[in-house]
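Morning!

This is the sequence you dropped in the shared folder:
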Amino acid sequence: MPDIVRTDWVTRFLPTLYHLFLCSGDPHGDYLSSRAIVPFQRVANLVWPNEDIRVTVKSELFKKAMERTNEFRSRFGTQAIKIVAKFFKDSKFGENPAEIVRYVKWALRPEDGTLLYRIPGPQRRLKDPNGELIPGKGQDFFQSPFIIQLVSPMLKCLQGSSGRGVFGEPRAAFALAAAALERAFLLWETGSETTPKTSFGSEHVRTTVLQYIKNCDRFSERRWTALKEATGATNMTDIEDGGTAAAALR
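The structure's back. Tokens below.
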């Protein structure tokens, strides 16, 4: 790779690469080997606007960018598993598989579960006078402690990005987190942890991620402000350069 690319790789290129990735409308499809040259070239143009850096499929830059993108996306899957495992092992559940099973069912409820909502509905659903279950309704979608814990360190990796004010909102960050946590909770649906049978790759989770991105695309500016405040990234356009990014990305 050119010397300037090697010099700026950790402090500028990778933060910008991750920034564009986390704002993607399809963080699996956009980064297939047949399509990834487009976002990689866009990143290179932003980081080195006065240099003639051409990304080709056979270039070292393309190969390394693809490797780092895949690693970064996989980190959502592995970290989600760790977060959920720690929750069950450190909490009141102890060695009570039945309670874990009940909690997993609650967490995965799309309308009011603890996976997605900061304020979930009651674990035991209420009934109306006719004995029918009353539909739950959670509050503060995508602001659950699980999602915030997973997304926050990912956004810190964007310090030094050249895409400030360019890429939009980090919709893929929250969509990937929700899909990864859903997969992680399902590993406990029998009451004890099981080993993942599939990867966090496109063929297994892309459809779920895209559905969550559709939710993100309906968010108001106010909702995005609340989400970024919850993660500590209050203003994505004011990410400062600094050593934190280099440390996080090595």
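Headline: The two ends are 18 Å apart (CA to CA).

More detail when I'm at my desk.
O.
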